[in-house]
Amino acid sequence: MSSGSEDSEVDGWIRWHCGHEGNEFLCEVDRAYIEDGFNLYGLRAAVPHGNFQDCLDIILDKIEVEEFENINYMNMLAGQLYGLIHARFIVTSHGLSVMHSKYRQCDFGCCPRVLCGNQSVVPIGSSMDLNHDSVCIFCPKCGEVYSAGRNPLCSSRALDGAYFGPTFAHLFFMTYSHEVPQEPPQRYVPRVFGFRVNSLSESIAHLSRGREEATTPSSGAAGEAVASTEGGAETRRAAGRPIRTLARTTTRHQDSVAVVPDRQSTRNPAIQRAGMATSSTASGKEHGDQGTSKDGARGSQGGDGGSGKLESAKRGSIASTGGTGGGLSLRTKRQRTSDTPVSGSTKQ
């Protein structure tokens, strides 16, 4: 920088730096934005050897660069600091408006792809760190990123990509959505002697695979996840890696009951009637056993303990033969006992 020039003295360091050859992509940051210390938070460590305040004073024209011994070195440090401030400024509302004016004037150049038809582009960087990569250009029509050196209308290929960052290009078209081309990008069709090359040909098969992978959900953004349930455990795939989480134990009881078939509805009517008869007989026996126990208790409480026990035993034998009236009476049992033949020892 030659501070003795009249333009430099009138316009200041910011305008001189942005008008320098190779800095066409840069816009003029407002002095009020630079003077606000909140906007400069974290940038002090980016300037080596404690020259942050000196570089800031050079940008704000508080001191002349000729006051330093190494003028070129201080200009380089001031340019790096201004570039980092520039990356923060262009994502603000006012910064986006300034860059939109440059976009409409095609200050960033056109897409080098022939089928895009000289579509206007915007600058983009791959990182927010210095000396990581040089500035590139992003085409909104084909969605591809190209090196700025391929554009013959651009001489800003020496700019650092951190002066723009990876956010600005996409935030720009989100803010000015009317600048996004509505027509889909035109695809190049390879032909041999006028005939279209088969997509399964080895010469272009990799192009088809690349397009299919770009359209599959698994190759989308890292924020997208595909969830599936296997054996009660939830498995998520994010960015191609399965992440197994804890199993879900919130199984409801009614769901398991609903899948069990109703056995009563599949039985034969005859079997059902037989089952009902069996259940009624079993209930009769149960009632009979209860009556026996009650009568036995009453007999044991009577005056004659022996007669009470005998009467209880008789009633218990009657109830045990059938609670529903199907058993034999005590008189019938006595008759059968009298009809029983006497043993041989008795006859003698």
Automatic annotation (TrEMBL):
GO: which molecular function terms? protein kinase regulator activity
Q: Where is the composition biased (Gly residues)?
A: 299-308
The cross-references to SUPFAM superfamilies, in alphabetical order and at most eight, read: Casein kinase II beta subunit
Q: Which InterPro entries match?
A: Casein_kin_II_reg-sub_N (IPR016149), Casein_kinase_II_beta-like (IPR035991), Casein_kinase_II_reg-sub (IPR000704)
Assembly behavior: Tetramer of two alpha and two beta subunits.
Question: Which SMART domains is this protein grouped with?
Answer: CK_II_beta
Family membership noted in the UniProt record: Belongs to the casein kinase 2 subunit beta family.
Q: Which GO terms describe its cellular component?
A: cytoplasm; protein kinase CK2 complex
Q: Where is this region: Disordered?
A: 206-348
Stated name of the protein: Casein kinase II subunit beta
**Matches recorded under PANTHER family:** CASEIN KINASE II SUBUNIT BETA
Q: Which domain of life is it from?
A: Eukaryota
Compositionally skewed regions (Polar residues) per UniProt: 338-348
Q: Which organism is it from?
A: Rhizochromulina marina
